[in-house]
Amino acid sequence: MFTEPKPLDFPTERGGGYVSCYRRTPWGTLIEFIARPSPMPYAQHTALRRWKP
Q1: pTM of the prediction?
Q2: pLDDT bucket at 18, cuts 50 / 70 / 90
Q3: Collapsing DSSP states into helix, strand and coil, what is residue 26?
Q4: CA triplet 52, 21, 11: central angle to 5 degrees?
Q5: Regarding predicted confidence, which is higher, 17 or 31?
């Protein structure tokens, strides 16, 4: 891992347990891992979603 898990920076993505960290794959691709244990705060204000799991 390049970084330790840290809280997400954007105000609309802050919440209980939201963290991210980065890692490079053996073939050189940089990957961001994100943990979202609860709904994003913006979901309370709109029906739009950034992605669907």
Answers
A1: 0.54
A2: confident
A3: coil
A4: 65
A5: 31
